[in-house]
Specification:
By secondary structure, the protein is of the alpha+beta class. It contains 6 helices and 18 strands. The chain has helices at 11-16, 61-64, 83-86, 126-138, 240-252, 281-290, and strands spanning 22-23, 28-29, 92-96, 102-106, 115-119, 122-124, 146-150, 153-156, 160-161, 168-169, 175-182, 185-192, 203-204, 295-300, 304-314, 319-324, 329-332, 339-341. It starts with 10 loop residues before the first helix and ends with a strand.
Length: 344
């Protein structure tokens, strides 16, 4: 006769059960909170409001320094540089994934650069963080929800947080974490690094610091680093997978105006205002303004030879935003680097 035993769920099903947590809207400090800013911390912009228009766009000094405008700024109520105050979090819904547990998908279209959600939780010091990690490890837990603010301050969303705790890792992410200064307080915002369509999974690069055994990465992205915390390998231009990785991003991006002259498919040194250029300023101007979504090969000052996609051109700074391999965004003066357009 078989002895009765207590029924237990298989380990695979246990792992799929989401960890319960308490929903909060703002960080809860379990350590000494940084004092609120009395004046302006010495950072303020010179943007001036005009009738019927908003101010503090991309050229706002505070915004470029990832600092919210303060009462000392002259921009007034029409200021756009208050992402944590004036911009509601985007619509998103919780879903189950095949290999990554719970995840979030966008429930509306999100444009590049837009504020998605704030990462919130309990703010703890380094000592408390270490104690919690060891306890979680001894319990056999593998899901960590920790985000470092500075050397001795960590946001822990394990027990208290919001939907941001469910955003999964990807080696080719569509959002990024940004550290903002808001009235003397450091807060973490998640912003879109490219246009995101409704129904698309929200991801960012955890830049994971390993604690315990290595964890496999299941993001499924082309060029996946295979392990959480693994460094991106040096780009290899001869790899078909590398080209496929960049082309894939072009195909999934929303359509933009493309007016690249067929006869001008090679632009050494970027052309414009460069003494070694084969094109004059007038002839290359069209490419500077209209090469959005172009796949290029360039000699990067840090990454050496690599592939990238031109995603944006700033007419004020005359610089381009380039999405490099691995999802890294960089802003470059194309007149000072060697580059050429690659055929897809």
């Amino acid at each position: 006769m078989i002895s009765p035993v207590e029924f237990q769920l298989p380990d695979s099903m246990k792992k799929q059960k989401p960890m319960p947590y308490t929903f909060i809207r703002r960080n809860i400090y379990l350590t000494k909170k940084i004092r609120k800013r009395v004046e302006d911390d010495g950072i303020f912009c010179s943007c001036s409001p005009s009738m019927g228009s908003n101010v503090c766009g991309r050229d706002c000094l505070c915004g470029m320094l990832l600092s919210s405008c303060s009462p000392s700024c002259r921009c007034g109520s029409s200021c756009l540089n208050k992402p944590f105050h004036q911009r509601p979090m985007k619509k998103m819904k919780l879903v189950k994934t095949e290999k990554c547990g719970e995840g979030l998908v966008a429930d509306e279209d999100i444009k590049i650069g837009e504020f998605v959600i704030e990462y919130v939780g309990e703010v703890i010091d380094d000592k408390t963080c270490e104690e919690r990690l060891w306890k979680m490890k001894h319990r056999g837990e593998t899901n960590f929800y920790l985000c470092e603010i500075n050397r001795d301050m960590v946001i822990d969303a394990t027990y208290k947080g919001n939907k941001s705790r469910y955003i999964n890792h990807s080696c080719w992410p569509n959002t990024e974490m940004q550290k903002w200064r808001i009235e003397g307080e450091t807060r973490i915002g998640i912003f879109a690094t490219r246009d995101i369509r409704k129904g698309e999974h929200l991801t960012y690069d955890y830049q994971f610091v390993q604690f315990g055994a290595d964890q496999d990465c299941h993001c499924g992205a082309l060029g996946c680093r295979q392990k959480l915390g693994a460094k991106a390998s040096k780009p290899n231009l001869s790899s078909d997978a590398t080209l496929e990785l960049v082309v894939c991003e072009m195909e999934t991006s929303p359509a933009r105006l493309k007016t690249i002259p067929a006869e001008h498919n090679d632009y050494p040194n970027g052309g414009q205002y460069s003494g070694s250029s084969t094109f004059g300023p007038d002839e290359s101007k069209g490419c500077f303004d209209n090469c959005i979504d172009a796949l290029i090969e360039l000699v990067h000052p840090v990454h050496n030879r690599c592939l990238g996609i031109i995603t944006r051109f700033d007419k004020y700074s005359r610089k381009h935003t380039i999405m490099l391999e691995g999802g890294v965004l960089d802003i470059l003066d194309m007149s000072k680097v060697e580059w050429k357009i690659r055929e897809v």
